[in-house]
Amino acid sequence: MSDEFLIHCPVPSCDYTGLVASVAGHVSGKQDKLHSWERLEYRGANDFKSDTDFITSLAVTQPECPVSGCSYRNTIPSIAAHVSGKKDGRHDWRRLEYDGAWDFRTNYHCDQTANPVSVLHMTDTHIGKKLGGYGSQQWPVDCVGGFVNAITEALLLNVDAVLHTGDIFHNDRHGITKEHIEACRTQLVRLRSAAIPFYYILGDHARKAGQQQMNVFETEGLACNLSESPTTIDDGLSLYGVNFHDEDWWDSPNWRPHSTERPSILALHQSMTPFTKAQRAECALEVVLDRFQTAGGPVPEIVAVGQFYRQIDQPVGTSRVICGGATERLGSTKSSLAPCVGLFRSDNGNISYQRRLIP
């Protein structure tokens, strides 16, 4: 995706400009008929962001080739490929005082001043679940209320994005009610109205009905499913995500992640070692991170995880693994963990984390 430069809003009469993710959020947040993904002939924000050729045509000012006298303009990766592909003496990395294409791309970003970025992290909202706990130790829970409180916190903090690491709906094989769909939609509309994008991955409770409903929300411009390709937040942070998969998939994951020069967060929702006993785990996080990097991805500074109704904050390899807990009391005991969200802040290449309790 071309996200290294400013672009115009795709609505001709609109003078809004911003980075790709910002423009996508701007269109999703507008309520007028012109700012409609359907009218613009896209299925949603993700579909728009994947249209590299059109995005390039919307560029406010495209970067130019560093070779004096060369008129080539395009994205930074394309310029790097352009210089590497030329065989004349002028398009020579040593002459340009760069140690190859990657050095050029890295130094270009290092020369830019990225704004601080804040992302609210929530997980395991389980909209539709009525009881917490297990077996004879259960208690009533208000998972819709927990989701509302988490969204309210995002709005109060005025974050740049919301990250959900799985199990938005409970979907205990009985489907998802219209009431719970509308309750979720109402909160996502609140975010869209504030131009705050909602990024998510699917958890094990999504199943077919959950996936279909999230696809509907994407079409409505209310949500974006993360993938192995980085989603950039205000040029200061990259988000990756992998939907829930069973053990067989993890034996030979089919992915081709793209690297990034920005600090990154990888979102996962799995039972995995070292946080789950090996016999119950679908994968080993240390192996996942190694394969992710081997396949071309970065070593993420943060791995934001769902699935665990407990607090996790510990290193695995060189990554920091974070789980604050669910947005309702869903653990093994009613007093085990208060409802919470997390706040990630990326500034000057560093990502900080703060766990925040919600009502």
Describe the structure.
- About 1% of the residues have low confidence.
- Helix 7 links the parallel strand 6 and strand 7.
- Helix 1 packs across helix 7 and helix 6 runs parallel beside helix 7.
- This protein has 359 residues and is of the alpha/beta class.
- The chain is built from ten helices and 18 strands.
- The radius of gyration is 21 Å and the shape is globular.
- It folds into two domains: 51 residues, no CATH class; 241 residues, Metallo-dependent phosphatases (Purple Acid Phosphatase, chain A, domain 2, 4-Layer Sandwich), CATH 3.60.21.
- The strands form five sheets. A six-stranded mixed β-sheet has the order 8-7-6-3-17-18. It has a six-stranded mixed β-sheet with strand order 9-10-11-14-16-15. Strands 1-2 form a two-stranded antiparallel ribbon.
- Helix content is 28%, strand content 21%.
- Keywords: Exonuclease, Hydrolase, Nuclease.
- This is Exonuclease SbcCD subunit D.
- Pfam families: Metallophos.
